[in-house]
Structures are given as C-alpha cells and as structure tokens.
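User: I'm writing a short report section on ligand binding and want a predicted complex to refer to. Could you take this sequence and pyridoxal-5'-phosphate and write out the structure as tokens? A short remark afterwards would be nice.
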Amino acid sequence: MRTYNFSAGPAMLPLPVLEQAQAELLTWQDGMSVMEVTHRSAAFKALAEQTETLLRELLNIPLQYKIFLLPGGATSQFSMVPLNLLPVGKTADYVITGFWSEQAMLEAKRYGMINIATSNQNEIPFDIPAVSSWQLTKDAEYVHYTDNETIDGIEFRATPVISNAPLVSDMSSNLLTKPIDVSQYGIIYACAQKNLGPAGLTIVIIRKDLIGHARADTPGMFNYANHLNAAPPCLNTAPTFIWYMIGLVLAWVKNEGGVTVMAERNQQKADLLYNAIDQSNGFYHSKVCANVRSRVNVPFFLLKPDLEDIFLEEAARVGLMNLAGHRQRGGVRASIYNAMPLAGVKALVAFMQEFERVKG
Ligand SMILES: *Cc1c(COP(=O)(O)O)cnc(C)c1O
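Assistant: Sure. The structure tokens for the complex follow:
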C-alpha cells in the first residue's frame, strides 16, 4: 500500500508518472531502458528537446532565456551563481528570509563581497520585510532571494520589484507550483526533487546575457558558458533516467491543466491545513505570519513539545510519513507539493483533530 509522503524532498511523485515509468522500465526505446541509453543518442536528444519545450510552455519562458538541466543540486548553484556573476571586488545583495537563503549567502561570501539587504531572522512570527526597507547596493551585480523557504515555511506572495541589478531566485521548492513572470528574473534555479522529479538534476533558467562572464578560475562544470556551448543536449554524461522522469512530471502537470491549476490546488490544500492549525486553539501553532505562509511547506509546532514524537509515530502508523520538521528546527512539517493529493491533506487534518481530541 502506498502511503502519503510529506517529506520536503525527495518528495512524492504523481502516481501516473510512476506507473508510466514502471511500464517503460525495461524497454523505453530501441529495446533498452532509458537508464541504459547514451545522452548522445537520437532518442535521448528528442527527449531532452521535448522536456525543454514543455518547460518553456508551462512557465511561458521567453526565448532570450536558456534552460539548463544540471547535475549537483540547488546547492551547486549557491557557488555557480557568484562564480559566474560576481567579479572579484564587486558586491552582490542577499535577502535573508530563512535557512536556505542564509546557506546561499554563506557560500557566496567565499567568492566576493556580500551585502545582506535585509534579514527576518530576529523576530517571531517570521515575516518578510517590505522591499522598500531593503538596503540594496547601488551597483550590485545581482540580488539573490529564496522565493520559498522550504524549512521555515515562508514564501513570497509576489516577485520583489527591484531595479538595481538582475534578480536571482532560488525556487527549489515552489517552481511549477504557480504561474511566474520569468522576464522579471535574471536567473531562476530549482533542484528537481521537490516538484519536478527525483533528485539528480537542477533546472536553471538564465537570461542569455548573463552567460559568459565567469571568473577565470571557475571549474569547467561550473561555468554556464561551457553548458551553453556544449553539443546538445548537454556537456557531460547525463542522468538519463532523472531527465526522463522530469519529462514525465512536466507532461503530467500539462495534462492536469498547467501551473494555474497547480496553484489553485496548492492554495486549497494549504488553506485546509492552516485552518486546522489556527482553529486548534493553540494545540498546534505556526511561527509564520499569515501573509507569508508557504503554500507548499507547512511547519508547525505542538503546544506540548513532548507530544511531538508521539504525534510523528502515530501519524506514520496510519500512513502519514516523514512529518518531522528539519533537524535544525524541530517540530512538524508537512510538505504538500504538486503531487500531494487533496486526500492526503484531508487525512492529515483528520489525524490532527483526532490526536488533539485524545491528547489535548
Ligand atoms: C532543497 C533545497 C535546496 C537544496 O537542494 P539540493 O538539491 O539538496 O542541493 C536549496 N534551496 C532550497 C530552497 C531548497 O528547498
């Protein structure tokens, strides 16, 4: 029996995607599994082209943007962005709204001068400071922010409007969960294992004029220009199976109605869960201001922290898996990405209410 996996990543995949992968596992094309084909084969090149077309269509990505599928996870982008965009002696602005934006900033600090434009870390409940209060650098090379803080459960409601430099966004946990206006960004990146597929590739959507400025000592694999100039579909041996799975997930999103439908469903799931938290009279509570609560990662805490282990244990017993908060933050966290069905959230809410009735 399949359970509901509330993990922040690797996350649940849509059942029809897993079923199609299962059906095609032994003979995908040319009598081979997709795991056995070379990335230089005609079959795989066609797959890569279809994947790009789907992504362009779903997110309405303009032609002046290049799309890369790169190995190394979102963490590699924490280095790749400054290596390619931040010349020695120049400054980049970082917006700190939680764990991941801070990690990105700490890595960038190794390469150049970093200005922390704002930080929300000192006050609970967590909010996002108004853009007008950010202390941006006049001639910054770029402004980096994290659109959805996966661990803290904080999400921007709108793209921050800035004019001093290109905007770079880590959308690892919410790309494909809502419509976005790509033209407002210099770079958008997202690792696959939240909403796009299994772990193993990171999607980078980059405005072409930002490619080709890497510092001289940039490792070849970390230079966007080398990926741009590589023979299609990619620079080195690709994890073909992950690429294929991302393609299946994109086709599933399209088939379901696209990112607008995903956004509606995600809002409905999030509303259900936050209402259950807010209506528990303090038995459960959120540490995030209502206007910036993530629609896809819902961390919450129990009034009696010693009940948390029992909560997690009993939830797992009824098939509600991986609800533990991040090891640095504790508490409970329900990740309810695109592939989490409404029924999974309803089952969680019912469990929470019953747990409160018995233990409250
Ligand atoms: C998961 C996540 C990361 C880290 O991704 P890796 O693929 O493990 O490197 C970075 N940023 C955000 C916002 C994430 O959700």
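A remark for your report: The longest helix spans residues 259-278. The first strand starts at residue 4 and ends at 5.
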